[in-house]
TrEMBL record, chain A:
Superkingdom of the organism of origin: Bacteria
PROSITE patterns, sorted: ABC_TM1 (PS50928)
Family (UniProt): Belongs to the binding-protein-dependent transport system permease family.
InterPro entries from the UniProt entry: MetI-like (IPR000515), MetI-like_sf (IPR035906)
Bilayer disposition of the protein: Multi-pass membrane protein
Membrane-spanning segments: 14-35, 63-87, 99-123, 129-151, 192-215, 227-251
Localization: Cell membrane
Domain called ABC transmembrane type-1: residue spans: 59-251
Organism of this sequence: Shinella oryzae
Phylogenetic lineage: Bacteria, Pseudomonadati, Pseudomonadota, Alphaproteobacteria, Hyphomicrobiales
Protein name as catalogued: ABC transporter permease
Keyword flag Transmembrane helix: yes
Pfam families: BPD_transp_1
Keywords: Cell membrane, Membrane, Plasmid, Transmembrane, Transmembrane helix, Transport
Length: 270, 262
């Protein structure tokens, strides 16, 4: 942050989204006021703000519940997907057998299996984690598999000529090559995973998450409540996405800078 | 009595199916010698190179280093290609010490040595940079330092400057000579560029295709150090003519396409 232009670009990065948000809210308020839309059809931003301030505690608690579902399910799905990809990369037989199963798992709509999952796994956290995991799983497998296959043959020959073992080739050459495609998959599926968590809460809504809140408000024609829930879900999606971006920033320093970071292990000092 | 060779190829050959990529080859390289290998596509340069590096099995014959049989064994020679093959997620220093890292981790001493190499050869300010921030010439220098840091007496360089523009290439050639003079390694340098082959080497190995083989080994009697002006000296031009003649009399262009493994 010694470079003043860098400071400016960081400010701009925050400035533009804020402007965009303000524009959306202003347009929303204006349209509701101008067309005199009744409150039960479409609440104004101020109605939603009032509702949020009145029901603040329940909403924040719901946010926490849904966020936990996302976080655990997302990690579970990404982790399993990663292991699957590595196994499939190691053996052609494994790849041949797993690939059709993977595609089949994607062909079934999530909403269709969520009811069955509730029957099998109950009304607790488990079915939600599975659904969120299913959303992330497939993109992670496909992208990580691509990353593993994209390693240059000449690099593999080079490290072999250097006397590298299979394990150290995997650790130092193949594994790091998966980071970029892995994070592309995670960024794409972060917001979808939140949708997955909401769908899961709709089928088995005893957890008190935002999805369950939304369903209740909707059934009571409480549009201000519905839109409060939507606001929190949007925030949840953005937080999830930013979380992935932050982890990516920490794990792939070569993509965001010219030099190793001063506090990192690979930074060399006298 | 001849000096015992550092690197010796004894009856080395390789076939791919019906195709003889390299027919029985003998070569002896003296310690500290700089050998260039030139020849058209399909002459077996890269096949020979990969066999010496231990990443390709010969059909017959042996590779000896200091008289020891190292056929089919990798890890005995330094190895560098036209592509720098730097790992983008490792800093310059971490790429230089890659050899040690792959064998279980670079010690403090090995890292210090990597830093010393980078400083000695003009990359001292880029130790903590990632390869993406470097120019093509700088990246090739890092690749060579990675090769040097592995402490092999024999280094195989396969068209290391092939992808660089001609000016960068010329300065890299001079830089390589200065490194070679300081480090006293034995170098086998594969290239398409006949000027480059003569300018760098003590001896030029001329290879010809169908079947791939060593056609002739030519001494380069130009004294060192060699300034850029030696590129235009009459001995240099005469050598170049001789090598060009050998290559073009033996490679009929009609067969050029058939080479599967150049």
């Amino acid at each position: 942050m010694h470079d003043p232009t860098e400071n400016r670009s960081v400010l701009l990065k925050i400035f533009y989204p804020v402007v965009a948000l303000v524009l959306v809210v202003v347009a929303w308020a204006f349209l509701v006021w101008f067309y005199e839309v009744p409150r039960y059809v479409m609440p104004s931003p101020s109605d939603v703000a009032t509702h949020i301030s009145e029901d603040w505690q329940t909403l924040v608690k719901g946010f926490g519940v849904t966020f936990l579902e996302f976080l655990l399910g997302f990690t579970l799905g990404a982790g399993t997907g990663f292991v699957f990809a590595v196994l499939m990369d190691m053996s052609r037989t494994v790849r041949g057998i797993l690939y059709p199963i993977l595609i089949l798992s994607q062909a079934i709509p999530i909403i269709a299996i969520s009811a069955a999952l509730t029957i099998w796994l109950g009304f607790g956290l488990a079915p939600k984690l599975v659904i969120v995991a299913l959303v992330v799983f497939f993109p992670v497998v496909v992208n990580v598999l691509d990353g593993l296959a994209s390693v240059d043959k000449d690099v593999l020959n080079l490290v072999r000529s250097m006397g590298a073992s299979k394990f150290s080739t995997f650790r130092h050459v193949k594994l790091p090559a998966t980071y970029s495609p892995l994070f592309s998959a995670l960024k794409l599926s972060a917001t979808f995973s939140v949708t997955g968590a909401v769908i899961a809460e709709w089928t088995a809504s005893t957890s008190g998450g935002i999805g369950a809140y939304l369903l209740q408000a909707n059934s009571r024609l409480n549009t201000a409540g519905t839109f409060s829930a939507i606001t929190f879900l949007a925030a949840l999606g953005i937080v999830s996405f930013l979380l992935v971006v932050a982890v990516e920033y920490l794990l792939t320093p070569w993509k965001s800078g010219h030099k190793a970071r001063r506090w990192s292990r690979s930074y060399w000092q006298e | 009595m001849e000096q015992a060779p550092k690197l010796a190829l004894k009856g080395l050959s390789r076939t791919f199916g019906d195709l003889t990529a390299l027919s029985s080859t003998e070569l002896a390289v003296k310690p500290g010698e700089f050998i260039s290998v030139v020849g058209p596509s399909g002459c077996g340069k890269s096949t020979m190179f990969n066999i010496i590096a231990g990443v390709l099995q010969p059909s017959t014959g042996k590779v000896l280093i200091d008289g020891k049989d190292v056929t089919n064994q990798s890890g005995h020679v330094g190895y560098m290609l036209q592509k720098d093959l730097l790992l983008p997620w490792r800093t310059v220093l971490d790429n230089i010490v890659l050899g040690a890292v792959l064998k279980g981790g670079a010690s403090r001493a090995e890292r210090d040595e990597g830093v010393a190499l980078a400083r000695r050869y003009g990359l001292g300010d880029f130790i903590n940079h990632y390869p993406a921030a470097l120019s093509g010439g700088m990246r090739q220098r890092v690749a060579l330092m990675r090769t040097l840091a592995m402490h092999h007496d024999v280094m195989l360089l396969d068209e290391p400057f092939g992808a660089l523009d001609s000016q960068t290439r010329l300065s890299m050639q001079q830089w390589l000579l200065s490194v070679w003079e300081k480090e006293k390694r034995t170098i086998v340098f594969v290239t398409h560029d006949i000027d480059e082959a003569i300018f760098l080497a003590d001896r030029v190995v001329v290879m010809t295709p169908r079947p791939g083989r060593i056609h002739e080994i030519i001494d380069v009697p130009i004294e060192r150090p060699r300034p850029v002006s030696s590129l235009t000296r009459p001995e240099f031009v005469a050598l170049k003519q001789r090598i060009l003649g050998t290559i073009y009399n033996n490679a009929s262009p009609a067969n050029e396409e058939a080479a599967p493994h150049a």
